[in-house]
Design a protein that fits this description.
The complex is a heterodimer.
Chain A lengths: L1 E6 L5 H25 L4 H10 L5 H26 L7 H18 L9 H27 L3 H21 L33 H19 L1 H11 L1 H6 L4 H28 L10 H11 L4 H25 L4 H22 E6 L2 H8 L1
Antiparallel strand pairs in A: 1-2
Chain B lengths: L1 H29 L7 H19 L2 H25 L4 H20 L24 H6 L3 H19 L1 H11 L1 H6 L4 H27 L11 H11 L4 H23 L6 H5 L1 H16 L19
The chains are: A mainly alpha, B mainly alpha.
């Protein structure tokens, strides 16, 4: 038995459009099987994951809050991936952004510092994320070192650095020895959009980022260059586009966005710096970028969908004692199906049972 | 003297999982496939290996479970990257994300449990020789297996005809296909071998390195194994050197804490990761004359019929 791929004469437009939906459908079927294996009622589990979070205002806000970092990071990553630059260290850039921004918050704690604190935190976080992302980018461009491995190694370094700060110099003296900074002052906190709610200004920033990316990719020469370098490197060389320069640029932008997402998360929903501020946002954002087909609007939708799985996963854990790791399994399987369905855009896929049949198919 | 012996023993123990996983990935990459899912396959090997050993009380069955888990994971990768011609980088990342989730699910019931660690070899007379006795004749079976594995892989790749064919697939899949070799089938076997090794390497951690399972216990070792393959310039001999060098960095970091060096432990823990970045940069820089990587590494191949 053999799996045979046949190149389609042209990309299948229909499949390109519905493939994320097919992928989500297949993932849900797989999850139903997994729930059954775990001995949980699949219908109740699906309800807890996908329906229940959509039914009350608090959960809806929570979805938007969770989607904010995912969308911001994924937009940056999509630029990298379009330009064929493999930044997979967004988690590290997120953490370094959180650290850099928190520095101001910690230093100004308890002083009568004014409204300048938050904007400076945001700027510093974006700058730190950029610099951190530039390390793998420059190592790739100058020395040819694999950006996949270097950007990933720096994630572990960032985690350890954050851990050192909150256990050492930045630890809250009144924090009962927990590894955390003190709660940020109000001037160092991202303002809420709804009084008493959870939705904060960061969500608006994420929407602006989506709009800016849509304009960049759809309406500017730079956006065109990014697409061409990724899709047709040879044509891009003839066109005089500088691929190395675009690696630097896309890494810088995605580092800035990840760093910004980091400080928004810390100065917003979390309220202080501590280890574990990210449940793997930097890695989940990779799935968001692919599920959104590397398209800004698609990423916005995909980000909201994956945020739903985070919230649903928490609800399923509380209501049905389904382990939280199921969410990660769900996300991994989803990425597989998304990629597999993408293959069907370019190829027709057939199962062949003997070699003779292959020969006849070709004849 | 005893301290030197202890350090050598702990370096060997820390290097062994890196060496096993990197050996598997070396074969995979030599066939032209870049499987970035090593971390995911390793962590599945750790969870399933511990589960197997805990349920049966046998280290051997635990190791077997790790190997099977790694191989099954690699088959998912083969189906995607070879069967459906999906981008190998993205598929490898997906494999790691899935592996981390699944291993958490499988291992959840085993956190806090302990098992008897793998037995160490003990030959009366030999193992008691001062200094070299324990180092040469007192290791656990995994250490000897890892060395046999890398020697076997060297012999296979560089001294046998199937090894030559496998390398041909990695360097030029179009020519290998034209000569009538089943490129995709050969690559599938190479990917499975890589998965089996990664699974075994993962199983080593809870079976011999520490006698318990914690979530995320591979801690990036799969990624370091990937970097080691680059470090080795895809050559088995250099892989051994690289793996022991990295094991030494890991242990240096542990012992420095014991010696009371005044550097915060987190900075010492970051050493292996920083070393990986630096090594990658230095090596890539030294190799400006031309890449030694298999020429078809990471490229999609769809045979036309």
């Amino acid at each position: 038995m053999q799996l045979v791929l046949e190149k389609r004469a042209e990309r299948s437009g229909t499949i390109a459009l519905v493939s994320p939906l097919i992928a989500i459908g297949l993932t849900i079927v797989t999850m139903v099987i997994l729930f059954a294996i775990l001995g949980k009622n699949p219908l109740l589990a699906l309800d807890a994951y996908f329906i229940a979070p959509l039914t009350d205002g608090y959960s809806l806000q929570e979805i938007a809050v969770k989607a904010t970092p995912l969308v911001m990071i994924a937009i940056g990553l999509s630029l990298c991936y379009l330009a064929n630059a493999w930044n997979i260290g967004a988690e590290g850039q997120f953490l370094i952004g959180a650290v850099a921004g928190s520095w101001i918050a910690v230093k100004t704690q308890g002083t009568d510092a004014g409204a300048w604190v938050l904007p400076v935190m945001l700027l510093l976080a974006a700058a730190a994320g950029t610099l951190y992302a530039l390390i793998p980018a420059i190592c790739k461009v100058k020395f040819g070192a694999s950006e996949i491995l270097t950007s990933l190694m720096l994630v572990y370094v960032a985690e350890l650095f954050l851990d050192y700060l909150v256990r050492g110099p930045w630890r809250d003296p009144h924090g009962f020895n927990f590894p955390t900074t003190a709660e940020f002052d109000p001037v160092a906190t991202v303002p809420l959009l709804i009084e008493g709610g959870r939705l904060h200004l960061g969500s608006l920033i994420a929407l602006l980022v989506v709009a800016a990316a849509a304009i960049l990719l759809g309406r500017t020469i730079k956006g065109f260059e990014i697409r061409v370098v990724g899709a047709a490197p040879r044509a891009a060389r003839f066109g005089g586009f500088n691929a190395n320069q675009l690696v630097i640029l896309t890494f810088a932008v995605s580092g800035a966005l990840a760093g910004l997402a980091g400080i928004i998360e810390v100065a917003g929903p979390v309220g202080h710096l501590q280890p574990g501020i990210s449940p793997g946002y930097g890695f989940t954002a990779i799935i968001v970028a692919f599920l959104g087909r590397l398209n800004p609007v698609g990423i916005l939708i995909a980000g909201l969908f994956l945020a739903l799985t985070f919230i649903g996963g928490e609800q399923a854990q509380i209501a049905m004692k389904i382990p939280l790791d199921v969410t990660k399994v769900f996300q991994g399987i989803l990425l597989f199906y998304v990629l597999a369905c993408d293959s069907l855009i370019l190829y027709r896929c057939r199962l062949v049972f003997s070699n003779r049949q292959v020969a006849r198919g070709a004849g | 003297m005893e301290l030197v012996e202890a350090i050598i023993l702990s370096v060997l123990a820390a290097s062994t999982p890196l060496l096993i996983a990197a050996t598997g990935e070396l074969v995979t990459e030599r066939s032209g496939v870049l499987n970035l899912g090593v971390e995911g396959m390793m962590i599945m090997g750790a969870a399933c290996g511990f589960a197997g050993a805990w349920l049966t009380g046998s280290t051997f069955i635990g190791a077997l479970c790790g190997i099977i888990a790694g191989t099954l994971m690699s088959l998912i990768f083969a189906l995607m990257a070879l069967g459906l011609a999906v981008n190998q980088v993205a598929t490898g990342l997906a494999l790691t994300i899935l592996g981390i989730g699944l291993s958490g699910l499988i291992g959840a019931g085993f956190v806090g449990e302990r098992i008897t660690p793998a037995a160490h070899l003990d030959i009366p007379g030999f193992t008691n020789i001062p200094l070299i006795g324990r180092v040469l004749f007192g290791e656990d079976a995994f250490v000897y297996l890892s060395l046999a594995l890398i020697v076997g892989v060297w012999w296979f790749l560089h001294r046998t005809r199937p090894g030559l064919i496998l390398r041909a697939c990695g360097d030029n899949h179009v020519s290998a296909h034209a000569l009538g070799y089943p490129v995709l089938r050969i690559r599938t076997f190479a990917v499975m071998f890589g998965g089996a090794c990664a699974g075994l390497a993962g199983a080593y951690l809870p079976l011999a390195y520490t006698p318990f399972f914690i979530p995320g216990m591979t801690a990036g070792r799969g990624w370091i194994a990937l970097a080691l393959v680059v470090f080795s310039s895809w050559r088995p001999g250099r892989l051994v050197v690289g793996a022991y060098l990295f094991g030494a960095v890991t242990i240096l970091q542990l012992h420095a804490q014991g010696w009371g060096v005044g550097i915060p432990s987190q900075f010492m823990s970051a050493l292996p990761y920083l070393a990986t970045v630096i090594v990658l940069v230095l090596l890539s820089r030294a190799r400006t004359g031309g890449s030694t990587a298999p020429a078809a590494l990471g490229t999609v191949f769809v045979p036309d019929r």
